């Protein structure tokens, strides 16, 4: 390329850069974005999801970004600091629970929970069958019987001195027949062991009858009414900064482990496969419409965040440098040299 042609190419490059910079600001940029959105959304009416992606591609993204990506150790610390700031902010003391969840919303959640009768019965059954609960029932009945025999029955209450006489008699009987007290205790506990299944069954039957929908509804709503006027700070009372940070760290460590489990990947795969089964052969516009992504929404977000970012990039000189990196090879190419030489 001759010097004259080189000068022409350089001049064209400068004018092209100025043209593009002028087009990437103010009203021109807004008009450009609006026009391109029209074109893109028009394409969503004909281009299907399967043409732009696949189950394998989405799962690969989940594998790289969600499952495999190494998270810096500073992340849980930052999350804990932010959670602490939220917990200690003034808004906690100024906001009652009812401003977060209204009574109508709480009622709706409760009504849905009351529909889960099978799950409720299953929980009661499992609690009744738990060894800790059975031991609790056995101890309560045992101590109740012993206390009743020696202190709280009608005879000892009605006749002065009878309670003391019974205790005195118990001590004398133990002296006369060593081990009698242990024998009584052993037999009573043996009787309780034999009777426990029946006690548990009756307890379960009682709870099924007592925990009716109306009873649960009244109890839960009464508790809710007593709490809804209290502030979030009151409800968080006792949860200090250290405990909160420890919970955040525990949650973070759980996530690091959970995301590696086959269960998590299977759940993600089920969701992605269902998405493609439902929308794969349909226009992208159907999916965008169903999730509420409209042209107006995208345009408003671009204007709120994208355009100010472009302004910053232009002010920092990045846009001009980018345009030069993009255009300069063309204006120095053999193709441009050939055109200019033909014009000469």
Please provide a written account of the structure.
This protein has 344 residues and is mainly α. The protein contains 20 helices and no strands. Helix 1 (3-23) packs across helix 20. The longest helix has 31 residues, at 180-210. It is elongated and about 120 Å long.
Order of helices and strands: HHHHHHHHHHHHHHHHHHHH
Output the number of helix runs.
20
The total beta strand count reads 0
Helix content: over 70%
Span between termini: 11 Å
Biggest sheet descriptor: none
Overall pLDDT confidence: 83
Overall 3D shape: elongated
Structural classification: mainly alpha
Radius of gyration: 38 Å
**Strand-residue fraction?**
under 5%
Give the uncertain stretches in residue-range form: 154-159, 161-180
Write the layout of secondary structure elements.
Blueprint: H1 3-23, H2 26-43, H3 49-52, H4 55-68, H5 74-88, H6 90-94, H7 103-114, H8 117-129, H9 131-152, H10 154-158, H11 162-176, H12 180-210, H13 213-227, H14 232-235, H15 241-258, H16 262-279, H17 284-290, H18 295-315, H19 318-331, H20 334-343
Helix pairs in contact: 1-19, 1-20, 2-18, 4-16, 5-15, 7-13, 8-12, 9-12
Task: Give a quick rundown of the structure.
By secondary structure, the protein is mainly alpha-helical. Helices cover 82% and strands 0% of the residues. Residues 154-159 and 161-180 have low confidence and may be disordered.
Main attributes?
single chain, 344 residues, mainly alpha, 20 helices, 82% helix, 0% strand, elongated
């Amino acid at each position: 390329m001759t010097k004259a042609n080189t000068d022409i190419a350089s001049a064209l490059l400068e004018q092209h850069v100025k043209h593009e910079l002028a087009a990437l600001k103010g009203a021109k940029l807004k008009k450009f974005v609006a026009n391109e959105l029209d074109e893109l959304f028009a394409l969503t009416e004909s281009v299907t999801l399967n043409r732009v992606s696949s189950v394998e591609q989405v799962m690969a993204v989940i594998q790289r970004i969600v499952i495999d990506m190494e998270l810096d150790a500073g992340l849980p610390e930052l999350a804990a600091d932010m959670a602490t700031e939220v917990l200690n902010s003034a808004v906690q003391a100024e906001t009652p629970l009812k401003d977060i969840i209204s009574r109508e919303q709480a009622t709706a959640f409760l009504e849905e929970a009351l529909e889960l009768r099978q799950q409720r019965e299953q929980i009661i059954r499992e609690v009744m069958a738990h060894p800790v609960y059975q031991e609790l029932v056995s101890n309560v009945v045992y101590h109740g019987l012993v206390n009743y025999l020696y202190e709280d029955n009608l005879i000892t209450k009605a006749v002065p001195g009878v309670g003391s006489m019974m205790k005195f008699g118990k001590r004398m009987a133990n002296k006369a027949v060593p081990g009698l007290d242990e024998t009584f205790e052993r037999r009573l506990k043996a009787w309780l062991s034999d009777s426990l299944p029946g006690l548990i069954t009756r307890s379960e039957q009682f709870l099924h009858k007592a925990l009716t929908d109306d009873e649960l509804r009244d109890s839960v709503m009464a508790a809710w009414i007593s709490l809804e006027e209290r502030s979030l700070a009151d409800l968080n009372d006792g949860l200090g900064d250290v405990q909160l940070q420890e919970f955040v760290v525990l949650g973070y460590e759980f996530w690091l482990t959970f995301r590696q489990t086959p269960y998590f990947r299977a759940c993600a795969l089920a969701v992605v496969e269902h998405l493609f089964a439902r929308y794969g052969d349909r226009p992208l516009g159907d999916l965008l419409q169903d999730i509420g992504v409209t042209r107006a929404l995208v345009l408003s977000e671009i204007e709120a965040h994208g355009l100010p970012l472009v302004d910053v990039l232009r002010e920092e000189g990045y846009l001009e440098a980018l345009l030069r990196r993009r255009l300069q090879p063309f204006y120095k190419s053999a193709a441009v040299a050939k055109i200019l030489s033909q014009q000469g």
